């Protein structure tokens, strides 16, 4: 049986974006007459009938947006939201913000935001779990969506995230230039894009230096200090030689340093440590933490700018922006 035509099919037939089709469906004025004629012709040729949800997406009517975060307490997520809210206010928009601790929490939150007739949506780390699947029907029906921290896998959405490959490379390369040849790594959950890219940077630095990689020196954490503590305990108990550690976030680095100290290892005399994020407490660690700085506030600000551009100019091409990050050298690696 032939499937029912979708807004994607109409957009492809007319050679326009799905947002433009949505504007025509909702009889919005921000469409050129020739474009409107082309869309209406495609609708007629395909026999497309817009759904009730599609009709409810009246682009630009409310000047409100939605923001869904895994939680509202994590420093990085809070900074992203702060940047998004500040930029939205500056441009005359308002944001509804909500947290979805799991993928199943995302669906009712999305329904509530749609009920409030949001113009568009930014979603933080939608591919860290399956919450992105709840976005696909909305994207299909023309809702403007921006990913923050995740890379789309064919979804027609724009995205902004950290240049994590570069960050992983900078952290590892710095340790190698200090003379370290056996560098352990504690990663975050390996279903997250940032983790895989930081691993790739770690691998690249080793490869360029002609150094082998010992997979037994790579352990997985969950971003928490306790997971860093437990991983360092396992590394030390293994008896494998290593003189440096790259922890993929600062909180795991803090736990790892504490575990090493409990085992009589001093940082940086016995063990060099580099983290990632540059949280506000990083300069006050004992010793102050060398880390990769990323600008979470800028991610939020950029995401809102991209979303507003998408709403106001729906035919603009998609963008995937990687924001540069920078190694901040402090005493935990012994370089100062």
Can you walk through the features of this model?
By secondary structure, the protein is an alpha/beta fold. The protein folds into 3 domains: 7-56, lambda repressor-like DNA-binding domains (434 Repressor (Amino-terminal Domain), Orthogonal Bundle); 64-163 and 298-324, Response regulator (Rossmann fold); 164-295 and 327-333, Rossmann fold (3-Layer(aba) Sandwich), CATH 3.40.50.2300. Helix content is 44%, strand content 17%. It is built from 12 helices and 12 strands. It has helices at residues 7-14, 18-25, 33-46, 52-56, 75-90, 103-115, 132-140, 164-177, 193-209, 225-238, 250-262, 296-312; strands spanning 64-69, 94-99, 120-124, 144-148, 158-162, 183-187, 218-220, 244-247, 272-277, 290-293, 320-323, 326-328. Strands 2-1-3-4-5-11 form a 6-stranded parallel sheet, with helices on both faces. A 6-stranded mixed sheet has the order 7-6-8-9-10-12, sandwiched between helices. Strand 8 (244-247), helix 11 (250-262) and strand 9 form a beta-alpha-beta unit. Helix 1 crosses helix 2 and helix 10 packs across helix 11 (250-262). The radius of gyration is 23 Å and the shape is elongated. Mean pLDDT is 91; it is low at 55-60.
Layout of strands and helices, then pairs:
Blueprint: H1 7-14, H2 18-25, H3 33-46, H4 52-56, E1 64-69, H5 75-90, E2 94-99, H6 103-115, E3 120-124, H7 132-140, E4 144-148, E5 158-162, H8 164-177, E6 183-187, H9 193-209, E7 218-220, H10 225-238, E8 244-247, H11 250-262, E9 272-277, E10 290-293, H12 296-312, E11 320-323, E12 326-328
Parallel strand pairs: 1-2, 1-3, 3-4, 4-5, 5-11, 6-7, 6-8, 8-9, 9-10
Antiparallel strand pairs: 10-12
Helix pairs in contact: 1-2, 1-3, 5-12, 8-9, 10-11
């Amino acid at each position: 049986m032939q499937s029912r035509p979708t807004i994607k099919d109409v957009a492809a037939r007319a050679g326009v974006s799905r947002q433009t089709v949505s504007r025509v469906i909702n009889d919005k004025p921000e469409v050129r007459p020739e474009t409107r004629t082309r869309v209406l012709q495609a609708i007629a040729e395909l026999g497309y009938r817009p759904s009730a949800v599609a009709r409810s997406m009246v682009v630009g009517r409310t000047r409100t947006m939605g923001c869904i975060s895994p939680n509202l307490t994590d420093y990085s997520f809070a900074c992203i939201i702060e940047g998004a809210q500040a930029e939205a206010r500056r441009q005359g928009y308002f944001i509804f913000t909500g947290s979805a601790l799991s993928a199943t929490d995302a669906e009712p939150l999305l329904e509530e935001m749609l009920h409030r007739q949001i113009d568009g949506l930014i979603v933080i780390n939608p591919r860290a779990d399956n919450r992105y699947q709840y976005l696909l029907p909305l994207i299909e029906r023309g809702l403007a969506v921006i990913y923050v921290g995740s890379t789309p896998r064919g979804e027609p959405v724009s995205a902004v995230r950290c240049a994590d490959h570069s960050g992983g490379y900078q952290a590892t390369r710095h340790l190698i230039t200090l003379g370290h040849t056996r560098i352990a790594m504690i990663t975050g959950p390996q279903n997250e894009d940032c983790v895989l890219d930081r691993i790739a940077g770690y691998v690249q630095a080793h490869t360029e230096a002609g150094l082998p990689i010992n997979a037994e020196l790579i352990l997985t954490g969950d971003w928490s200090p306790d997971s860093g503590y437990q991983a360092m305990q396992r590394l030390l108990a293994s008896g494998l030689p290593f003189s440096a550690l790259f922890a993929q976030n600062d909180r795991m680095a803090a736990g790892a340093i504490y575990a090493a100290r409990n085992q009589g290892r001093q940082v940086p005399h016995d063990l060099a440590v580099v983290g990632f994020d540059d949280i506000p407490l990083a300069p006050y660690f004992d010793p102050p933490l060398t880390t990769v700085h990323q600008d979470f506030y800028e991610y939020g600000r950029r995401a809102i700018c991209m979303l507003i551009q998408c709403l106001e100019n729906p035919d603009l091409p998609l963008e995937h922006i990687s924001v540069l990050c920078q190694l901040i050298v402090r005493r935990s690696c012994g370089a100062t």
